[in-house]
Amino acid sequence: MTDTIQSASERRRARQRPGDRVFTGTATGAGILILVLLAGVAAFLLIEAWPALLAPDEKIPGGEGLVVYIWPLVFGTLWAAVLALVIAAPLAVLIALFITHYAPRHFAQGLGYIIDLLAAVPSIIYGLWGFSVLAPATTGLTRWLEDNLGFIPLFAGPVSTTGRTMFTTALVLAVMILPIITAVVREAFVQTPRLHEEASLALGATRLEMIRMAVLPFGRSSIVSGSMLGLGRALGETMAVAIVLSTSGGVTFNLISSGNPSTIAANIALEFPESSGIAIDTLIASGLVLFAITLVVNMLARAIVNRSRDSSGAN
């Protein structure tokens, strides 16, 4: 029996065309190359950050140790990215539903192109727009939030007079990740089996009920994966945050004050040109932390996507 299986396997290999072997080798090599590059980046960050990891607290910028230096940056990175995701993800799902199930075909196609073009805008343009247009426009809203919702720690104030707040930064990041999430979710909604939709309508469901029972469950895994892609973009965003956000280095949940924590990527961009010695090693150590955060987020996203796909009927 074993000889029969081995001979069949050998015949399949013998019948394999040269082009198939080239393609298989190329694909395998590309996958291995990605792993090698990832390991190389991790090794570089670890080697360059090692002096900062071993340095005494007084040698680290600020004189309070590496953990005290990096923790506000980690908090600011996660806080800004999560706020942007909370704003962008529901809006992206609604836009995708409008394009795929409500808008006329020609209008939906044009709107889809426009949203996709948002992903091609350089991040520095978003930063300049947030600094010169959005930040001044939000000052009135932030004053209203302080006057009416100041009892909530998120809006306690004092209000920033420039508008360069975490609130503005989250809005800019939300606009930046919106086309990424929308594109992924839209493609999933388009691929919803037509029979599922027609069966729901035939059973007496309204369009809203059909979307809730057929479209959203089918696209659940894509909603999660698109959101995680957007979150990864927000975590690593540099120039837009560096331009818009006014930082003080403290840890606070206040969204409308001028005292805001910076993010890891923005802090590296702003501090690196004037740093030397152990200060550079400290910045690289913070980059190593950002690398680890991104890796953990992607691993969690993959696990959530796989679980969502198993229960959504997408298979």
TrEMBL record:
Residues 74-301 form the ABC transmembrane type-1 domain. Residues 1-22 are annotated as: Disordered. One of its GO terms (cellular component) is plasma membrane. It is found in: Cell membrane. PROSITE patterns: ABC_TM1. The chain crosses the membrane at residues 21-46, 66-99, 111-135, 166-185, 238-257, 277-301. It holds the Pfam family BPD_transp_1. Its main location: membrane. It comes from the Bacteria. It is a multi-pass membrane protein. One of its GO terms (biological process) is phosphate ion transport. The keyword Signal does not apply. GO terms for molecular function: phosphate transmembrane transporter activity. Gene3D superfamilies: MetI-like. Keywords: Cell membrane, Membrane, Phosphate transport, Transmembrane, Transmembrane helix, Transport. Belongs to the binding-protein-dependent transport system permease family. CysTW subfamily. Part of the binding-protein-dependent transport system for phosphate; probably responsible for the translocation of the substrate across the membrane. This is Phosphate transport system permease protein. It comes from Haloactinomyces albus.
